[in-house]
Amino acid sequence: MTPALRILSPGLSTTVQDFGRPGFQRLGVSVGGALDSVALRAANSLVGNPPNTGALEAVYIGPSFAVDATDVRLSFVGADAAIEILADADASHGEPVSPMRSVRVRRGQIIRVGSLRNASTLYIAVEGGFDIEPVLGSVSTDGRARMGGWQGRALMAGDVLPLRCATATTRDEYRIDDLDLAARSRFRAVAGPQSDYFSEAEIERFFAGKYIVGAGSNRMGMRLEGPPIRHSRGFNIVSDAIATGAIQIPGNGQPIVLLADRQTTGGYPKIATVISADLPAIGRLPIGSKISFEPTTLEEAAAARQQLCAALENIDDRLVRLAPPPATVGSRLLECNLISGVHDAAA
Amino acid sequence: MLDYRVLSAGDTALVVEFGNRIDRELSTAVLSLARGLDAERIAGIVETVPTFRSLMVHYEPLVLSASALTNLIHEQMQKLTTNEVVGHLWHLPVCYDPRFAIDLDEVANKTALSGSQIVERHSGPVYHVYMLGFLPGQAYMGEVPTELALDRLATPRTKIPAGSLAIAATMSCVFPLETPCGWHIIGRCPIPLWDSQRACSLLAPADRVLFVPVSAREYETLVTRAAQGVLKIEPVAEFAGAVA
Fold this sequence. Notes:
The structure holds two protein chains of two kinds.
Chain A lengths: L3 E6 L5 E3 L19 H10 L8 E5 L4 E5 L2 E16 L8 E3 L3 E6 L3 E17 L33 E3 L11 E3 L9 E6 L8 H9 L2 E3 L7 E5 L14 E2 L4 E3 L7 E3 L6 E2 L3 E5 L4 H5 L6 E6 L2 H16 L5 E3 L7 H18 L1
Parallel strand pairs in A: 11-19
Antiparallel strand pairs in A: 1-4, 1-9, 2-3, 3-8, 4-8, 5-6, 5-7, 5-8, 10-20, 11-18, 12-13, 12-19, 13-16, 14-17, 15-16, 15-18
Chain B lengths: L4 E4 L4 E5 L6 H17 L4 E6 L3 E6 L6 H13 L7 E9 L9 H8 L3 H8 L4 E6 L6 E4 L14 E4 L3 E5 L2 E4 L4 E3 L2 E5 L5 E2 L4 E2 L6 E6 L2 H12 L9 E4 L4
Parallel strand pairs in B: 5-15
Antiparallel strand pairs in B: 1-2, 2-4, 3-4, 5-16, 6-7, 6-15, 7-10, 8-11, 9-10, 9-12, 13-14
């Protein structure tokens, strides 16, 4: 039987995401990918996957799923959430699992993820990744184009996601330390590309403004509510290309920060652009958060990117081995037998 | 040489802007610059995205700084030749039958033209593909005859079928996928414009398109053949030169 995760309840909108599919924007293909690439990377690191392996991205309300494999190693990184492992579908209570760690889950057991707190996203990585054919080099779900991920859509109850590994490797579990995923309220942005559609006073107002992440926010864009920004020469521009993090000001003056699933092109003036190093942090911000922007320079942005990249390069250094759970003699013996079996087969 | 400005779009993209209007001369400059930069395979350039009047260059700032990239763009602009834009000419069948042209009456009301006059005028010009955007494989083709250039409907539709042909102000678009849409729909194209399995868009910026009216019966035949995977559409011609 194909090893798989079987979705019992999909949560609010759970999708498969990796780092997205750059390189095809000229064809109108969105880049997409994880809203919080730092958390995704950490989740993959915990289960020993390459950084760009596709994982589940849950938003606001997590999924429940059953393990249809001998066993799997999972990790959970991102929002605080009540995560439980239940013995089977009939169990009313399970063993709680803290986020920011890996865990081994056996056939028939059920993982139940509750509501997310303090962040909008939680990444659930599985050792070896999903056995999903990449589209344009990525397994990220593009819901608008209905491609990539699992059938080009968010997961539904009854979906069976095939896994690349039928069994978890025998190793210790890890947690990840010092990963700063705390909610931030200040985000750095560089002016442009259409800052000349706004007076200097309006640009100052924008950077001084306090905004709230509005309920209409989604993977495409974060709709902000706060002091409206007035255009000095209208709000219709000839459509041009969009960068992730672009802050566009539509007719009502309420800024929209364009996120991972943004379209490739659009027609509103963009007053400023959030720097790349701050995109994972803004991507994980939940609705209702209070935020503001601070102007920065390209030099500072490059330095911040360098710093983030260096930290991510060394993310494995933050893994801390967890004390192994007290194993029954039986399961220990079984593991040993499995190992010797592998050795024998290889010999 | 054309005036242009280089604008910052964050720390991983910049925009080379040639103006703020839809214009074939500007489009030629955009497409020529894209072609020039792409041909150089410059380390640090991730991708270029041509639009009506500007080119976005996505880059990796830890490999190529904004200032170094800006210098490369200036160099490229010095040797920009606008006669190297290469494209294909396509004849795209379109069925303007009222069962697909759900806004034909509305367009007739707004333009005081009859249905057949609308079809005749819309299928008259050879359209220039300015850019792709909004959906994979979705081309913005211009210009529609002035009398057909209509703004959005008062109430956008939450869903239109794949292949719908719209008037989008001065542009015409065929939507490759089912999508919400606020524009006037005047027909449907049976040719798949986007193949996500092969990452393949039929149309590319700089291509030219002539819409060829077909009957509902021909439309159905073409749809069937496309579904069977036996429909081959080839460009009518390849051309190189400035965007006329």
